[in-house]
Design a protein that fits this description.
The chain is of the alpha/beta class. 46% of the residues lie in helices and 18% in strands.
Length: 359
Amino acid sequence: MESLHIDLGSRSYPILIGTDLLSDATLLKKHVTDKVMIVSNETVAPLYLRKVIDALGNTPNEHIVLPDGESYKNLDTINDIFEGLLENGFDRGCTLIALGGGVIGDMTGFAAASYQRGVNFIQIPTTLLAQVDSSVGGKTGVNHKLGKNMIGAFHQPVAVIADMSTLDTLPERELIAGLAEVIKYGFIVDEAFFSWLENAMPALLKRDPAAIAYAVKRSCEIKAEIVAADEHERGQRALLNFGHTFGHAIEAANGYGNWLHGEAIGAGMAVALDMSKRSKLISTDTVSRGLALIQAVGLPIEPPASMSKELFLKFMQRDKKVSEGQLRLILLNAIGSAFVSSDFKEQDLHDTLENCTQN
């Protein structure tokens, strides 16, 4: 088992990465309180809920099984969690456990942030995307039809337990979607990791245990460093949104769940590469190298045919990174070097979106 540390003072917590961690009763019991609510979904619960219940031993617990999918990441579903907590008499001393992918983690975390003004929660991510990204850093929330993750809170878990054994049951499409967030880390801060991914991609796609373990560990290391430096995204943490402003627009415009989050981010990173080149920051060769890795993963490098420049602009103006009416984009100076920019030419953005939506 690997153990990383998110350094946030009194809110610091471990990220535990390994295999068969759900079978370790002592590991889970270290982080729970007197009563536990496990939140999962219809896909994950039949696979892993019993393991978590068994690991809790005599700790009183209940569970809620929600429908699966991004389309259910909304306030109506959050209310189902609240009803379960209230009906079963959970008080402020309880712990919530998020057992599932990014949707379950985000919703459970938001419920924990809101219930009785804040209770503890543990992330047990069961998808690659959740293990390398959404379970770490305390961003919680739900979607609105007008924008992704626009309703939420920063609320840190007390632990993240990433059992890589759960990836054995992950569908191929979900694995590929998770790799979008992995290669993002190479794009924004670590060219050496990007180079490693170029060589290791065949092994990752075959689910080689050593390759997957290193990809998860390095991704979490990078995110832990960034979150510790900028917990509430006032500066450096925005780099983690490389490709996301464009990708979130794709998700919101096309209906949540029609494209997986990682698929939308793959196309979004391709758009960001185009914008970086059009802004005279990177070369054509750099764009080609970036696109080659996105395609090697099996991710799209073009938005869906239904996207237009106008749709992109409409939803991007509702992005969380808009500040005082000014859109901020994450652009590249080079692979491994990203920055936040609000000082781009509007015409370059329009030209990029025109170019990327001419299918």
